[in-house]
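Archive entry. Fields below.
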Amino acid sequence: MAFLNDNTLDNGLSALKAAADRVYINSSEPATYTAASSTVALGSKNWGAGNVFPAAIAAGSPSGRKLVTAAITDGAVSGTGTATHFSIVTSGSSRLEYANSLSSSQGVTSGNTFSLTAADIRLPNFGG
Amino acid sequence: MKILSEENITHVGDKFRIEPGPRVLKAVATPELLDNSQTALHYALEINDTPEGEDPRPGVDALGETIELGKEMTYLDWTGVQQGREGSLVFYAYELDDMTKAEIKARTSEEGVEPEDQTIWRELGFYETHDDALSAVLAKGA
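PREDICTED_STRUCTURE:
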């Protein structure tokens, strides 16, 4: 899987669903919350806590359980550049929850909007 | 000068912070390196998260470059951190700095509206220990 914070591994997808509040697009893969939200941030969508993953936790494929991010159609681009990754954070705890590459890099222009399709975040069962 | 720990971030005054994270590494992509025991799942030649019926997409490294066998790749050592591998977890130091003119221009809309907040957390580097990062930040004038 892509990076998933230990908080989710320890407390489960419910904790992630309840806490995560923002999605960022980034010019490179962020290693920290600070990188995700500032240093390499090119844009963001503030959903508010509990709304990044609007649907209930569901069965994952081929195994395990998953959350699905809400599709974004009106993300705010804050910097002109090429977005290669996206990240999910809990801003109130300054915690980077999840980071992964975009399905394809996007050129973005400051002041415009960005879109992201829904993405699965899966905790696999034993064996993958 | 106040040092405040908040969850995983240490705030040093108002303009510096220290945060743990995976080490950044560069290496030539090989099947051994791309094995899930060595690097995170998303560092792969192909990623199978495309809609059903579509071909897998090429995997990219931490800089967004396509991963190819025999080509150098940049990656974050997430797997090492989760395995507790020594040296995988490092401490990033950041300074809250004013944006340069070029950075402001990159964040100005096509209508000419400049960003309201013209500061950015700039990475100063990463350090082996929290104390090393703190020493570096204090030496910078925190």
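CURATOR_NOTE: The interface with chain B takes residues 1-3, 6, 27-29, 31-35, 37-39, 78-82, 84-85, 93-96, 100-101, 103-105, 109-112, 119-120 of chain A (CB under 8 Å).
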